[in-house]
Amino acid sequence: WRQISFGDEMRVCSGWRRFLLFVPLIFFFPHLISVLEMHQNSTVEDPHHKQTKKFDHLVLGPPAGQGLRDRLQCRGIKALNKTRRSTSSGNFNYGDGIAFVTVFATYNSSIDRQVTSRSNDLVTVGKMSYNKVERSMAILNVFFNFIQVMMPKSNIVVITDPASELPVLRNGVSVFPIQGEYSRDKLMLQRIRSYIAFLQSRLEDHSQWQGKNNHYVFTDSDVAVVDDLGQVFNNYQNFHVALTFRNNKDQPLNSGFIAVRGTPDGLLRAKVLLQEVLKIYSSKYMKASRMLGDQLALAWVVKSNLSFDTKRFTRRQPFVEKIGGASVLFLPCSVYNWTPPEGAGQFHGMPLDVKVVHFKGSRKRLMLESWNFLNSSSSSDISDMLCLILKSGRTKYDF
């Protein structure tokens, strides 16, 4: 028998306390490892999940702007009120014409041909399947379709690389080759250069027009003209260039719509304005995203005018301002450059006087689907088609 000292008792108690403190860790540690693994897996899976969340069919949701007096009201894909159509065709009697101008290039490199030949790259819209090149051509053709339905007397000019294989065989459509660098990463820069070269050519040929003017609307090819734009030149006669604006601090101007009055003065001042934009683009924004540099440069040129009040971009009213030597008409994007994402956001639905719908980003499928819908039934009209766009425009699609 051995007598246990007080010191021994203390050491035993201390050892038991350490053991009891360690016991919860035995149960907690596996749970901690499991949580860390779940977190790691979620960070790996999230980007993939986001990448695949694009739809290959229309997804209808609630239409924005319901209950607002001056917005399109829809029940299903049936319009309860009709959008207001312009009557400018009957009033536009100055003997002047209107031509739409777009820059378009096809890419037929060996890499592109390998990519587009893969069967899993095909997308199907309606009864048609398209690879990447065919998709671009389908969008271009729908661009033609909307213009020729809404403004049958207008012409369309496609500016392209002389080396581009562009099979355009259509009445009222002409190809205008301009030498330049049409690669994807330089396309926005080249677009400004091409606009300048085109305006210069129109200036040189103006003497042959026998007193008539031909006005020009420069647009992206992923737009649908849903009303007659002749009223822009008819109702606002004191401008040289028209731009579209929105309430966006960093990018208040969208370069996807630029109208130019076809008088010698209008053509010249538009050319000089775009030359200034090109200079700013080349000196300040060459490192910007390939789709944003021209818009940032355009905004810089406008805002550099000391008397310009940027608060006017927050209102939905057209206004005219002197920028350099040009008289510039600013038109609201909500009417002349309406887009599905902003329609669900700051535009608060679709105004009844909307004239141009711009299918930016991953909404090219919606452009083709809209045209198919318009032609699917004799009872479908423009307003019903716009309800389809309004209800399905929140979703990103596969192209």
Quick rundown:
InterPro entries: Nucleotide-diphossugar_trans. It contains twelve helices and 14 strands.
**CATH level-3 fold name of the largest domain:** Spore Coat Polysaccharide Biosynthesis Protein SpsA, Chain A
Order of neighbouring strands in the sheet with most strands: 7-6-3-8-11-10-13-12
Q: Which range does the strand content fall in?
A: 15-25%
User: In the residues, how many domains can be counted?
Assistant: 2
In CATH terms, the superfamily of the largest domain is Spore Coat Polysaccharide Biosynthesis Protein SpsA, Chain A
Transmembrane segments: 19-36
Keywords: Membrane, Transmembrane, Transmembrane helix
Describe the model.
This protein is α/β, with parallel strands linked by helices and 399 residues long. It has two domains: 1-47; 62-392, Spore Coat Polysaccharide Biosynthesis Protein SpsA, Chain A. It has helices at residues 6-52, 88-91, 110-116, 132-150, 187-205, 230-235, 264-284, 293-303, 333-336, 340-343, 364-374, 382-392; strands at 74-75, 78-79, 97-103, 123-125, 128-130, 155-160, 173-177, 214-219, 223-225, 241-245, 253-260, 319-323, 326-332, 356-358. The strands form four sheets. An eight-stranded mixed β-sheet has the order 7-6-3-8-11-10-13-12, sandwiched between helices. Helix 4 packs across helix 11 and helix 5 (187-205) runs antiparallel to helix 7. The chain starts with 5 loop residues before the first helix and ends in a 7-residue tail after the last helix.
